[in-house]
Write a sequence for this structure.
């Protein structure tokens, strides 16, 4: 029996197992509009939201009705590159990328609030205990993969699923000429052991009782919920040893 009610707030790690984070989708667009003044358009009939940089070189699009499940797309012109994310991609990793976009255009306002990682991909993987074999980095539990194939049109491709299970699939891709620091930004906020907050019903069903996922309460913790989660992570590591 699940220890949480559907409406309970929980902390989940690893992040790539946590699902989209439906109630936090605005984190990917809101800062661009409200902190940086990027113009936006919202088609209420379709639900499509588009935001673009003041110079018209960068576009962020959200469309929950996309036929191929790519809810998010980022496109840059001259040089052209594109990043795309499917529905269950954790919003925290997407938001880390979108919020860093103004810095690519030289807008350093709020740089203290939106740090841009300078850590190479291989070091991010090593710090978070991802395994490397040839061109592929794999998460410790084997559920998430980053494939880097420099010669391909889409050289960076993240894929995730839990035992090929329904509603646990997501993928993220970055085409040629995407600044590698944006890929590193996404990877940093995906691979970190810091948990993310979800409503329990929004955690993918096959993850809710998965041994590889750590799910702890937000409101029923005896101490600060993040401290409680960190303690549970440590206890799990010690127990597995």
């Amino acid at each position: 029996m699940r220890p949480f009610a559907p409406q309970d707030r929980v902390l989940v790690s690893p992040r790539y197992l946590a699902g989209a984070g439906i109630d936090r989708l605005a984190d990917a667009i809101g800062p661009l509009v409200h902190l940086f003044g990027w113009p936006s358009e919202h088609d209420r009939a379709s639900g499509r939201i588009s935001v673009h940089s003041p110079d018209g070189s960068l576009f962020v699009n959200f469309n929950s009705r996309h036929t191929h499940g790519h809810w998010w797309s980022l496109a840059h012109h001259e040089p052209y590159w594109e990043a795309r994310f499917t529905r269950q991609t954790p919003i925290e990793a997407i938001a880390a990328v979108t919020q860093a976009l103004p810095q690519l255009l030289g807008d350093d306002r709020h740089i203290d609030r939106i740090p841009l990682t300078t850590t190479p991909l291989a070091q991010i993987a090593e710090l978070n205990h991802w395994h490397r074999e040839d061109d592929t980095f794999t998460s410790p539990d084997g559920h998430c993969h980053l494939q880097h194939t420099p010669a391909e049109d889409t050289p960076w491709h993240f894929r995730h699923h839990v035992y090929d299970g329904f509603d646990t699939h997501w993928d993220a891709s970055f085409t040629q000429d995407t600044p590698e620091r944006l890929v590193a930004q996404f990877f940093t906020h995906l691979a970190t052991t810091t948990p993310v907050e979800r409503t329990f019903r929004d955690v993918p069903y096959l993850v809710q009782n998965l041994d590889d996922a750590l799910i702890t309460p937000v409101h029923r913790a005896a101490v600060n919920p993040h401290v409680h989660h960190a303690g549970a992570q440590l206890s799990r590591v010690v127990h597995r040893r």
